[in-house]
Amino acid sequence: MIKSLNTAATGMAAQQSNMDVIANNIANVSTAGFKKSRAEFEDLLYHTVKEPGTATGANSVSPNGVQTGLGVRTASIQKDFAGGSAQITKNPLDMHIEGNGFFQVLTPEGQLLYTRDGAFKKDPSGRMVDKNGNILQPEVTIPPGVVGIDISPTGQVSVLQGLTEPPQVIGQIDLANFVNPAGLRSLGRNTFSPSPASGNPIVARPGQNGIGQISQGQIEASNVNIVDEMVNMITAQRAYETNSKVIQTSDQMMQAINSLK
Asked: What pTM, to 2 d.p., does this model score?
């Protein structure tokens, strides 16, 4: 069988994975704190007819050899944790991390997760929670009847009980960082969990140990560039079509062989 049939098939499968990644990026262009991904590929094993450097005579060797590639496969899907642009909301519970770091949230099942989505709200008890009800850690409870909430760049949370009363500190928000954020496991719902590739979380105050500071009243937009993704989509589509052409051409060559008498 002509090897190009299987080789082109692996190329089509790789571009299918590439298109899946691009589609997910485009779908989340408006998702707060979303980080785009990029598919990365590697070539497969080679069919070696003659090794490079094989002796071809008494005093000569083959400079290149004869090696035929057998296709491609998806090696990894890389998360890009570059910062997204700030969206001003003026909501006092919205927070944007300017730099590295993740908010820590605790699920109802007791699992500690990490997120870049800083759109927090109050639950019936006044605790700060994300849109899925996960509790911000360390836990911060907003007392009833406050007239103002202030979150400093270093994560200190203060409230005003009255216009004439001094601010009262009610909590401190700490952030977590990882040696390799790209190794985090994506769980959906804007959350991540650690993995052996990411390393253990490093918790610190905002602005310390390489962790970014907090900006109140704004959230981080997705870092997806829609123009770049459209270009990537066109490139993937053309590569897919070209691989399908290789299959058609290989099939025509096999037809020609079968027609020999």
From this structure: 0.88
